[in-house]
Design a protein that fits this description.
The longest helix is centred in the last third of the chain and has 29 residues. The protein is built from eleven helices and two strands; from the N terminus they run ααααββααααααα. The protein is mostly helical. The chain has a domain of 209 residues: Serine Threonine Protein Phosphatase 5, Tetratricopeptide repeat. α3 runs antiparallel to α5 and α8 packs antiparallel against α9.
């Protein structure tokens, strides 16, 4: 079972009406601006939970999709190509003073899903505002990656292959965001900014999504009866991905001091859980090789280490407890067998085998679409 952490998708935004701010020079451009506003409003209503339409209408508007998450993905995939085209045409006249003024008047506002709650006022979430269309593109793309990951989590119980694919696609979105979108936004960022626009956080989310994808791949491998030796390496590979994420998070906390502590705990706890699972399979492999003492030593050390990383969140604690109980029971059986049959010496911690990791998943590259339509402004 994976630890569920869906906070990155919990973004909110304020209404934007493009045609009220940008002056169109012709009726066709005006229709483009209205369509852009209309597509965004559907996203606003979905994530702000402010829609008044019925489930049946929502399903019809999303091409028959029944899942709320799928509907949000559909709306994002309708909006992002229009936004990419709009920014392309704005960039062509970016030197014009009027264009800069319009961007300021648009008032692009988003909350952060990953900001620390300490110090926030009780009146509601904090909205960050930027006079830059790439802020809109960055936050919408970040949301797209987060919703892809959320859908992957939903599919876990029923479709491991599709779940893995969606995690890898989400990783590709965050890779694109970090490398192609956020660098150009950095010069205009204020000191106080949402963590979502810090490039290093997108690197962290990419690594988390890859770790999720490998964890689901391992579940499929377990169903196929893969050897304990390989399963141990795959679980340790997940731990290595999360080690990388933790290292990048340290940089993120320097760049953005208001990041919430829960994402840090999530990375730490996931790493500990997969390391525990890795050592359980190492112990199984050692037992098969008739190295009972080493098998016992590995499990004892694994339980000592994991107790130092127990999460504070109750739903995560229950997953940890289940895993720890299984390992403790396995250890009890091994110790009993060793006492009455093998009488092997249990080595000290520094004599135990060094774990090996194997990382087998890669991102699915994200190639944004742009609906090529001419747009002309009245300048």
């Amino acid at each position: 079972m994976l630890l569920h952490y869906q906070d990155p998708a919990k973004l909110k935004t304020r209404k934007i009406v493009f045609e009220d701010t940008y002056a169109a020079s012709d009726s066709f451009t005006l229709e483009q601006l209205k369509e852009l506003s209309s597509k965004r409003r559907l996203i606003e209503d979905s994530i702000n939970e402010s829609s008044s339409i019925t489930d049946a209408i929502a399903r019809e508007m999303a091409g028959g999709l029944t899942s709320h998450t799928e509907q949000v993905l559909y709306k994002l995939e309708q909006y992002l190509p229009l936004l990419e085209n709009f920014i392309f045409h704005v960039d062509k006249v970016s030197g014009n003073f009027q264009i800069a003024q319009w961007a300021s008047d648009l008032k692009i506002r988003w909350t952060s899903a990953l900001i620390s709650s300490s110090g926030l006022k009780l009146r509601g979430p904090k909205f960050f505002q930027m006079d830059n269309l790439r802020f809109e593109l960055s936050m919408t793309t970040f949301l797209y990656g987060a919703i892809l990951r959320q859908r992957a989590l939903e599919l876990l119980p029923v479709d491991l292959v599709e779940s893995t694919t969606l995690f890898r696609q989400a990783a590709g979105v965050y890779h694109y965001l970090a490398h192609e979108v956020l660098p150009s936004l950095q010069p205009s960022l204020a000191v106080e900014k949402p963590p979502e626009v810090v490039s290093s956080l997108s690197f962290v989310l990419r690594l988390i999504c890859l770790a999720d994808a490998q964890a689901v791949t391992i579940r499929k491998a377990e169903e196929k009866g893969t050897t304990s030796g390989l399963l141990a390496k795959l679980h340790h590979g997940v731990a290595e991905l999360l080690d990388e994420a933790a290292a990048v998070l340290d940089t993120t906390k320097i760049e953005c001091k208001n990041i919430c502590s829960q994402i840090v705990e999530f990375v730490s706890c996931c790493r500990a859980l997969h390391e525990l699972r890795s050592r359980k399979f190492v112990a199984e492999n050692l037992k098969t090789a008739s190295q009972m003492g080493f098998s016992i030593g590995v499990l004892r050390q694994a339980l000592i280490d994991v107790r130092r990383k127990l999460p504070s969140k109750e739903s995560w604690k229950s997953i940890f407890k289940k895993e720890m109980d299984e390992v403790a029971e396995f250890l009890r059986k091994l110790e009993h067998e060793n006492t009455f049959i093998w009488n092997e010496r249990v080595p000290s911690s520094d004599e135990l085998p060094i774990p090996e990791g194997n990382k087998i998943v890669n991102i699915i590259p994200y190639h944004p679409k742009r609906w090529e339509r001419e747009i002309f402004f009245k300048l």
